[in-house]
Amino acid sequence: MRILAISGSLRSGSSNTNLLLAAARLVPAGVEMQLYGGLGELPPFNPDVESAGVPIAAVDEFRARLAGADAVAICSPEYAHGVPGVLKNALDWVVGSGELVDKPLALINASPRSEYAYAQLTEILTVMSAKLIPGACINASLMGRKTLDVDGIVADAELSVALRGAMAALVEGATGPRPESTS
């Protein structure tokens, strides 16, 4: 199983990116989670270009990565009470092409102060017909933590339990419940 992780931040050392990288270390056995790093390479969405069918390598690659994933995990900061422009732009590129339709999705929030972007992403992804998995949509607050790097997040008992649980819920949402043991 493959999970595509998307951070809404382009910032080097982003706590949102670090949360996703930590989650990648905590996925169930047999699951591969990779971070998509091309958000900043996507051109501004233009419906005229979209309708003309002009191939754009960065957009084609993003769509292919989404299509090839069994599930998606998104973690995003909030800027000015909203979704960062680069993330919204990326989502706009796949509204019409449908790579997120019925795609199991985890939405991870890194800050309790980031309530507007989280709510907006929930609405946007619901309208796009993504399959938000309730147990995989979590608040994993990094506020007040001493370390925000990947190793520190994995070592933090509360955060690692939350991320491990969210990733397990995402996998179950993508594959269905596992049969009960009959032993």
Features:
about 180 residues; alpha/beta; Rossmann fold; six-stranded parallel beta sheet; 6 strands; about 40% helix; globular
Structural class: alpha/beta
Shape: globular
How many discrete structural domains?
1
Low-confidence runs: none
What's the CATH architecture name?
Answer: 3-Layer(aba) Sandwich
Quick overview:
This protein is of the alpha/beta class and 183 residues long. The chain has helices at 15-25, 47-52, 57-68, 85-93, 115-127, 150-155, 157-175; strands at 2-7, 32-36, 71-75, 104-109, 131-132, 138-139.
How would you explain this protein's 3D organization?
The structure is a single chain. The longest helix is centred in the last third of the chain and has 19 residues, at about 155-175. The chain has helices at about 15-25, 45-50, 55-70, 85-95, 115-125, 150-155, 155-175; strands at about 1-5, 30-35, 70-75, 105-110, 130, 140. It is built from seven helices and six strands; from the N terminus they run βαβααβαβαββαα. The chain is globular, with a radius of gyration of 16 Å. The model has no long low-confidence stretch (mean pLDDT about 90). Strands 1, 2, 3, 4, 5 and 6 form a six-stranded parallel sheet that branches. It has a single domain (about 1-175), classed as 3-Layer(aba) Sandwich (Rossmann fold).
